[in-house]
Sequence to fold (502 residues):
Amino acid sequence: MLTRRFGALAGLAAAAVALGVAEVVAILTGAATSPLVSVGGVVIDSVPAKVKDFAVSVFYTYDKLALTIGTIVILAAFAAAIGILATKREIYGYAGIGVFAVVGIAAALSRHNAPWYAFVPTLLGAAAGAGVLRLLLTREAGYNAPAGQRRSFLRTAGYTLLGAAVVGIAGRWWSTRRGVEADRAAVDLPTVPPNTVAPLPPGADAGLPDLAPFVTPNKDFYQIDTALVVPQLTTEDWRLRIHGRVEKEVTISWDELLKRPMIERYVTLACVSNEVGGNLIGNAKWQGVRVADLLDEARPKAGADQVVSRSIDGFTAGTPTAVLRDGRDAMLAIAMNGEPLPVNHGFPVRMVVPGLYGYVSATKWLVELELTSFADFDAYWIKRGWSAQGPIKTESRIDAPRDGSNPRAGEIVIGGVAWAQHRGISKVEVQVDDGPWQAATLLPVPSIDTWRQWTLKWQATPGRHRLTVRASDNGGETQTDAVAPPDPDGATGWHSIQIEVK
Fold:
């Protein structure tokens, strides 16, 4: 007679094999067709915005990893339950696997641009899981000696679980890297004429310990998006379609894009989910083609006040057409800090628009620009309650000394960054405890589209101190001290830290 414990283990082993086989098959059909990925994608698209905001605030850039782990835990509980039910009647176990298959297939076929064969990984995985469940239940029931029965069953189930986990992880790793990294490594970036490059002025970086460098290394640049797995799009397959309310529809291949005039600019990007004092912001040197030139070629029709940028995975962002044509260096970027875009940051092409939060402008893995109007279409995050426009607010942050640190008494240098993209920073002030506001030294910047480092020398006295910073932009507006959360159009407030001077 099978026990509940052995039944649960059989269910777990069958589920592990189902997922492992599905991940291996997804090497051929694409990582997005994996049941874990497709079901996770449906969850990301379906949960309320407040839940997403909570996930970002708690798990930071690891929110999608947390979702994957959570999905596996829930699936494991479900698998154990159907294994226990199968000890009573074997048909219950197969019915549970059937439910898994139906959910996975429906999710896979519902995804944007899903191929007709998107159901194959889930179907084959479910079949393999059913076979393993049948094997384990039959094997367990066929022994006469209880001790030998338990040892053999545990070995078989344990090896099955371990093998399925290894195969599944290897399949996921391979399916998300198939050919794209090699394609990226083979990209030969076109040379940008010297007169189109905004040089980095001497002294832009103070080089202080703990102060964020003026240029954020690619590996440290924040990553927030809705893609559960990074889309794998080669330069050969890439096409950009400009359509909608235009006089002339335009389609551009990768080779055609590289032949167009390029610019290279330092631009700071910021996520609307960034809390006051947060790190969801970074500055990089971007290379690409001006969006305005492409729109001029397509000739937007009257009333087309929104450009919807669409990712290969279906994500959309709506950007005001006027912003993209007002002379700022909005571009389709192909390079980041002198190298082809990292796959995680949108290879082969992404949007970069100075002055707007990323949720309305910075689409990665870009394949479409559709001219429409704000009255006719709400992009991904707008449907979830966020503001439609998303201009970046004037903000500042203290990086050095660190919050909660214990510097020694004497002269120390307070330092940080301030930003008001496409307006520029004109003044930064620091307050120690309840004392007067003191003007900080502003370091030079290549343009008004980047953040700006600032420093202030302070004679620190022993004891506990509160340091607060505020910034003003070139329009004369000083950031507000009114505290507001990121939802719906960006956090506000002054950044303060506490230190204990020894």
